[in-house]
Design brief:
By secondary structure, the chain is α+β, with helices and mostly antiparallel strands. The chain has 7 helices and 5 strands; from the N terminus they run ββαββαβααααα. A hairpin with a 6-residue loop joins β3 and β4. The longest helix has 30 residues. The two termini are 19 Å apart.
Length: 221
């Protein structure tokens, strides 16, 4: 018999606006997802006819609903969940020029999460979001410094100018890369010191909101 694919339905979360009540709701996920929705999106859990779902306070202004829903969706993505975010709630696609604002809002919430971490497992999660290879917030910074420095050095060399400033910039990029590796090692040690009930395996993480890409609309297989 051909093996059937397995869909991780419990890890798939939909954030949308209920057309009947206009409330912003999130459906799916587990207790960990509920905590992320509450922390980053202001959602509260409410009982449903079959399973609990999550609801934003209806008193929030529309722009705050959009901003918090976007931040929650990317925090869920970083935690390894699959997310569909209603395009009408995605500030990265509905309002031109707000990518930087959404990114700063995400960093502010990540800072608060680190400041109020109550155990090593929570610290490890924050460090993962910071320094995960290719997907942490440090990764695009390192790439930007190195690629800018390399292009600058080639241009200066072609013009017969001293590339010392470009090489200094590349050195800074290399230092930032080494710092990211140190943070990854600290993250690993923090994860190992947490209790078995708290520790979770590190997952491949999607790109954080520094990259203005809308969350996927299809669940992972």
């Amino acid at each position: 018999m051909e093996k059937q694919p397995q869909f991780l339905v419990h890890a798939y979360i939909t954030i949308t606006r209920d057309p009947r009540t206009q409330y912003v709701v999130a459906i799916g996920g587990d207790e960990r997802a509920a905590g992320i929705l509450q922390m980053y999106g202001g959602f509260v859990s409410v009982p449903g006819p079959h399973l609990p779902y999550h609801l934003q306070p209806h008193t929030l202004p529309v722009d705050e609903q959009q901003r918090d829903a976007t931040a929650a969706s990317y925090a869920l993505l970083l935690a390894g969940f699959s997310v569909f975010l209603d395009p009408s709630l995605n500030t990265l696609t509905t309002t031109p020029g707000v990518e930087r604002q959404a990114f700063y809002h995400y960093l502010d919430q990540l800072t608060e999460r680190g400041r109020h971490a109550t155990d090593d497992s929570e610290v490890a999660d924050v460090l993962t979001a910071i320094a995960a290879p290719q997907q942490g917030v440090l990764s695009p910074l390192v790439d930007m410094l190195l690629s800018t420095g390399m292009a600058w050095r080639e241009r200066l060399g072609g013009d017969g100018q001293d590339p010392v400033l470009a090489e200094q910039l590349m050195d800074i990029g290399s230092t930032a890369s080494n710092l990211s590796l140190q943070i990854q090692r600290i993250r690993g040690q923090a994860a190992m010191t947490s209790s078995p009930a708290q520790s979770r395996p590190e997952k491949d993480l999607p790109t954080p909101p520094a990259q203005p890409t809308a969350p996927s609309s299809s669940p992972r297989r």
